[in-house]
C-alpha cells in the first residue's frame, strides 16, 4: 500500500539522487491554486523512476514554494483531480518537503508553484531515494474547447457561433477604429450585404405586389419571402454588431446581454428557415400546376398559400423552442493583476460574458437533426419538384406530341426549366458553409484561419440576397410584372 504523508523532519535527507534548479518568471503559466488563490505561476515536471520505493522530495527557495504530486495527469482547470498530496512549507521554514511511494510504469507529475499570487523567483528541487531518478518537462494539455477561467469554465460542444469566431479577435475597451483589420473589414462587409439585401427585397416587393404576380399562390409565397429575406439579413447585421459592440464595451448590462443571447440567434434562424421553406412551397406549387394542368384551381392555390404562410412560422419556431430554454450567459472574471489591496476589484478584474448553450447529448442530437431538416429539407423538396416538373411535363408532351420520343421531350423540358434545378443547387451550396460551421467541434482554433470561418459564415447568408436573381430574373412573367410596376412607380414619382 502506498504511503503518502508530509515529511516534517528538520534534518536533511541523505542519499540525494537528483538536484533540479529552475525559475518561475512572469512568462510562466498561472492557475488557481486549490481553486482559491489566483494567478499562481507554476512549473510542471514528470518524475521518472525505475524502482518502486520510498522517495523524499524537498526544496530550497525564496519564493515560498508550494508543491503538488499528481498521478497520471495534471489539469490546471481542475487542480483537485488526480491529486495525491501537497505541501506548502508549513513547519519547515517555508520549504516544501514530501515523502511518498513511487511505482514504476506510473506517471507522476510534480507541480511547483507559490503560496502567493504573481510570485516569481528561483527554486531548487532535491530528491532522495534509489538510483535512476529523473525529471522531464511536462506540458498540460490546453484545450481551446474551454472558455472561462480556471475553476470557473465551460467546455464548448459541437458548433461554432459568431461569438466563437470573433472572440479572440475582438479587443475589449478598444474603439472600433483601433480594432484589427479583420474586424473592420467584417463590419464593412455586413453593411454591404445589408444594402444588397435591401435592394433585393425592394426589387422583389416591386415585382410581387403586382396583381399579375399574385394570380396563384407562388406570387404570395414570393411576396412574403421578399419580406422574410429582408428580416433575415437585418437580423444578421444586428447579430454581428451585437457581438462586436458587446465584446468591445464590457460594461454592457447583463440584462441586455441575456436578451441578445436568448433571442437574436433563434429569431435569425426563424427567418432563415422560413425563407427556405417558402421557396420550397413555390417549387411544390409549380409541380402541382404541372400535375393538374388546366384543372389547377388558382383561387384554392391562393387560399392554401395564405394558410401556409400563417402556420409555417409557428411550425418552424416550435422546432427552435429548445434554444430559448438552453441558451444562457456564462460570466466570469479574470483574476486580479496585482495583490495591492489599495486597488479595487473594479479596476483589477476583467469581466467576460459569453453566450452558451448547455445541451444534453439527446438535445444536441435533436438540435443537429433540426439543422439538417431545415437546411437539407427545402433543397430536397425543390429538387424533387423540379424533377417532377421536367419528367411530368415531358410525359404530358409525349402523349400530345407522339412524333418525338420521351427522351427528346425530357431534353426540351430540361432546357426550358433548368433554372428550377440550378436554383436549389445554388441555394444549397451557399447554405452548406452554415451547416459545416454548425457541425464543427467547438475546439476549433478560429484565430488561425479567421477568414475561412468568418467568410463561410457570411456566405451562408447570401441566399437571402438572391430572391430577385433566382426567381424574378429568369421568369418572363415576373420580369414583365417588375417592369410594369417599376414604370408605374416612375410615373408617380414627381420629376
UniProtKB/TrEMBL annotation:
The keyword Membrane applies. The chain crosses the membrane at residues 185-208, 220-242, 308-326, 369-391, 420-440, 452-473. Keywords: Membrane, Transmembrane, Transmembrane helix. This is G-protein coupled receptors family 1 profile domain-containing protein.
